[in-house]
């Protein structure tokens, strides 16, 4: 279950393997809400199979923040760590196999991992990856047109284009489904020329 992390950080493989029993496996259908916006997060998840969407409600409209796929860790980190209400909902968009860990076990694992220099680097790398992803997405709303955002998404995250329903992709790009259809058509025509 933590094999992808063991592969990425082989120097921590044995330490990571020792935490496997803290995780609990569940299979859930699509559209399963793992955490509601406004609730305090008591769990963090690891995806074995499937896709999870982080989204929030803005005046009755769903806005997607991020998609998570196999091998990724998912949580409302600020809610989980600080015991405050989550600012977004976590929901599966495919039938999923996920593992969850409770806060007490996660804090033990985190403290144990951070007790070594390699572990500190591991935590830093994971946190930095997620922050960079959010920053790139935020900057694209300032810098890029919707068409450019879609083209970048096709290049950088093709799994989203292949696996996520169009209305969620439109929400992620900050546009309507109709606009996304137009952009897809325009990009297809560009490829044909």
From TrEMBL:
Signal peptide: none annotated. SUPFAM superfamilies: cAMP-binding domain-like. Residues 26-110 form the Cyclic nucleotide-binding domain. InterPro entries: cNMP-bd_dom (IPR000595), cNMP-bd_dom_sf (IPR018490), RmlC-like_jellyroll (IPR014710). This is Crp/Fnr family transcriptional regulator.
């Amino acid at each position: 279950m933590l094999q992808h992390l063991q592969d990425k950080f082989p120097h921590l493989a044995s330490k990571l393997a020792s935490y496997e029993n803290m995780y609990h496996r569940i299979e859930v259908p699509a559209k399963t809400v793992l955490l509601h916006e406004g609730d305090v997060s008591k769990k963090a998840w690891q995806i074995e199979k499937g896709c999870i969407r982080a989204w929030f409600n803005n005046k009755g409209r769903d806005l997607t923040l991020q998609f998570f796929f196999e091998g990724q860790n998912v949580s409302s980190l600020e809610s989980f760590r600080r015991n405050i209400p989550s600012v977004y909902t976590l929901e599966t968009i495919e039938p999923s196999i996920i593992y969850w860990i409770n806060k007490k076990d996660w804090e033990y694992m985190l403290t144990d991992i951070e007790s070594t220099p390699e572990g500190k680097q591991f935590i830093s790398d994971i946190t930095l990856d997620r922050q960079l992803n959010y920053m790139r997405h935020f900057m694209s709303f300032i810098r890029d047109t919707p068409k450019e955002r879609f083209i970048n998404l096709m290049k950088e995250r093709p799994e989203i284009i292949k696996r996520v329903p169009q209305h969620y992709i439109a929400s992620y790009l900050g546009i309507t489904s109709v606009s996304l259809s137009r952009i897809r058509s325009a990009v297809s025509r560009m490829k044909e020329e």
